[in-house]
Amino acid sequence: MSLCCAISNEVPEHPVLSPVSGSIFERRLIEKYLIENGVDPINGKELSADMLIEIKTSPVIKPKPPSATSIPAILKTLQDEWDAVMLHSFTQRQQLQTARQELSHALYQHDAACRVIARLQKEVMAAREALATLKPQAGAMAAPAGVQQPAVAAEATGVAVQPAEQAGMTAEVIQKLQEKATVLTQERKKRGRTVPEDLIGVDAIRGFHTISSHPGLHSASVPGILSLDVHSSDTSKILTGGNDRNATVFNKDTEQVVAILKGHTKKVTRVIYHPDEDIVLTASPDATIRVWNVPVSQTTQLLRVHDGPVTGLSLHPTGDYVLSTSTDQHWAFSDIRSGRLLTKVIDQASTGLTTAQFHPDGLIFGTGTADSQVKIWDLKEQSNVANFAGHSGPITAISFSENGYYLATAADDACVKLWDLRKLKNFKTLQLDDNFEIKDLCFDQSGTYLALAGTDVRVYLCKQWQELKVFNDHTAMATGVRFGRNAQYIASTSMDRTLKIYAL
């Protein structure tokens, strides 16, 4: 008569007897059960491993299964065992490789963290030394309010003599700029903690497609739209500048042209829609900047502050001043309300300025040059405070992120470079095809996405810098790209004379 384990119902190899219930168990099974429960599994009474009684039995010889009674069956069994061993070995090798990669990654992260900490400590020490050096100079340079500013601007390359017609950066103007910057910095830090609830997500961006195309905004005889902007408060209003020397205000919701602004004698290369008012600014190679009242389609201010084509245009966050650059090597800061030129500075180290953009806080701005340089300027001091080198070819576009830390730049070298303004260094380069041209760059208002326009239109996810979507339905070079509020849509313009709207 054979014994059966009360737990597994099989013949035990090492049978033991429970004195509590009188049942037979396989030793290893009942010991595991007792470790977890401490009672007999049959009647639930207290039982320990020391109380078990070992039963002496003859060795159990298990009969061969019916499938192993012939040579082919035995070979099949051996083959199955071999296959199982090989699969187990393969799994072990995979797990080993994964563990090696994780260990390598952890070691790399540790090494990188150590290097970052060392660099930050070095930068902190350098900043403290610089601050200690600047404090005496700041006291010497301070001037009483009401004293006329000298007509000289300190630059990295020397001294720039400003024209006598400049009104000057008065203490009142500087105070206004500083107060606005303080408010904007605080608001930006608050916004940086949360993402807008109705911001379009990554998967939705991937699903964007062309929902409308508008070819009739500019003249067909002189085709080409060269510049684009979107009203930040009412993003149904879109402003375009064309080869036909006109600027057009278009309502994408009603699909109607609101105004056609005529006055420039050459093509309109830069346009800005005022964020709070129905006012637009346009610039042209005719060396003028015009401020327009959209409801009456009339020029309210005509700024002649440059001797060459105007290449860059950026509105200060106060909404009262405009920054402009030109091939005449100057950047100018003007009051759009009175039409006065406040200050004008020459960049003697460049062969000409190609673009300009204010930082979101408004106290610094960036310019691009024809000789591949990106320069950061202090508006109050009118001085060049940092230079970014690395591009080849003229700088075509620059854009500051709303987070205040990132600057994106593009040139005639088929790449986009991302710069960290805190470390003053290039931390990422988006390399495109060799023949790819980039004409415009734009971050969305939350700083989550970056779009570029050129050979085609592309959208990237910031921080990961992952390409999310490519739009290539323009039949010619794309010249401008902008996001709607919270990336609800993307607008792009092209030399094919069309304005395209991308959305879900």
Number of helices: 4
How many beta strands in the DSSP annotation?
A: 33
- Rg is 36 Å
In what range is the share of β-strand residues? Answer: 35-45%
**How would you describe the oligomerization state of the chains in this entry?**
single chain
Poorly predicted sequence stretches spanning 5 or more consecutive residues: 135-164
Helical percentage = 10-25%
Distance between the termini: 77 Å
Shape summary:
elongated
Q: Classify the secondary structure makeup into a structural class.
A: alpha+beta
Supply the key terms.
elongated, 4 helices, four-stranded antiparallel β-sheet, 33 strands, 504 residues, 35% strand, alpha+beta
Account of the protein in words:
This protein is α+β, with helices and mostly antiparallel strands and 504 residues long. The chain contains 4 helices and 33 strands. Strands 6-33-32-31 form a 4-stranded antiparallel β-sheet, with no helix packed on it. A hairpin with a 4-residue loop joins strand 9 (246-251) and strand 10. The protein is elongated and about 115 Å long. Mean pLDDT is 88; it is low at 135-164.
